[in-house]
């Protein structure tokens, strides 16, 4: 472990000045203003305890050899110390509630507070997953209503609600495809994935037992459909295509591609993480999609990115609907209930199995449905249109100072830039991103998608005001102009105003330094 002169870990193997210095002298506590340093809870522990437990007199022989002989090393802290530890940690977390979060592909949009209010209603918030169906009819009705919204918005007949994230939804979709292929008595092993795909796509295909075959992209940022068609054959199980794709572009040959895949006997998995651009405007079912996950935590404003668990329901076409996993929501004369066992599934259903315990992320279902009901169908459509408008505003406002590889045409919900505007400036793409942190902005998605050199992918979402976008554009323009003029002062070694200076990213990943060494003065005081 390496320490800098304030006892702050740097992860770089060498000293980098932190910010807890006044005129070059480190603070005694190691803290900076009221912004406390945070040690691991195990390092904070000092033997106190928040609860007084009575001495338990259990006869030795009743415990046999199970009696613990030594300490197990739990951190000893009082209740307020535990609360402060976690509150301080939470305040170090950058969040959509603290500022603009322009991460491309992530749809970091505002989480309306009405969602939270609804999720805390005792009938939803205090529900136990094993409560009998006779006592949970309202919650089951809510799930049914959300299913109706999802199937109507996508134009698909069925939806599996239990997947707990986008990637989990991908797995669910591919397992349904695998079951459908097995039911046909076929052995199709290859899944085609465009090279611009999100990393979860090939990972999911491999995890589900398929081999991944990469399809190249065209210079216009779309998938090379001729190359894709040339790869189709009797061993192709599916394609996994993202639309709009990770370059922020609509795959305009999608209908044709879907038809070619179906003609070859394969299935069309669509990565729907970018549904925020098209919800209410385009129905994936009309495009020929067989399975698509919907990230409720992106498009439908449930928290994510450290803010909460996700939810990745998967809509399924007629060809795959029968294979949806349990639990299945069914209605009979006693009302709604969940079928938990494949053997009890209604006629025609052939569930491939289950994705998780229980029925999915109930809290997220409440939030997503609240969002839908408070927007209405026209409001969902307007949200998509505004997301696309915001991204195009950014693209049009910055493409003269930052280079945009596909800047000629409009984009969908994200604006893609590359780093050629930095060429010869002495400022690297990473410097540029880190300088944004000093300006109070979380960087955009960097170096992704991989098909564009030095990619910078900005997704402003519809929830930023024009004022916020103008301010962001102003800062980015100024940074880009300075960099192009070769004025590198701001960029070298950025960020300088953040709690941590730049880490050596390789060392930080390989040898993460998680401990904070107390400044010597404090350590001595404690001893
Ligand atoms: C976010 C995202 C995923 C994965 O979703 P998780 O909920 O993070 O698992 C997959 N594909 C794309 C294009 C995404 O943006």
Key words describing this protein structure:
seven-stranded mixed sheet, globular, binds pyridoxal-5'-phosphate, three-stranded antiparallel sheet, 527 residues, alpha/beta, single chain, disordered N terminus, 17 helices, 14 strands
Give your account of this protein's structure.
With 527 residues, the protein is of the alpha/beta class. The strands form 4 sheets. A 7-stranded mixed beta sheet has the order 3-9-8-7-6-4-5, with helices on both faces. Strands 12-14-13 form a 3-stranded antiparallel beta sheet. Strand 10 and strand 11 form a beta hairpin. Helix 4 runs antiparallel to helix 13 and helix 13 crosses helix 15. The two termini are 22 Å apart. The relative contact order is 0.15. The N terminus is likely disordered. The structure holds pyridoxal-5'-phosphate. Pyridoxal-5'-phosphate binds next to helix 7.
- Which radius of gyration do the C-alpha atoms yield? 26 Å
Strand order of the largest sheet: 3-9-8-7-6-4-5
| SS element count, helices | 17
The shape, in one word, is globular
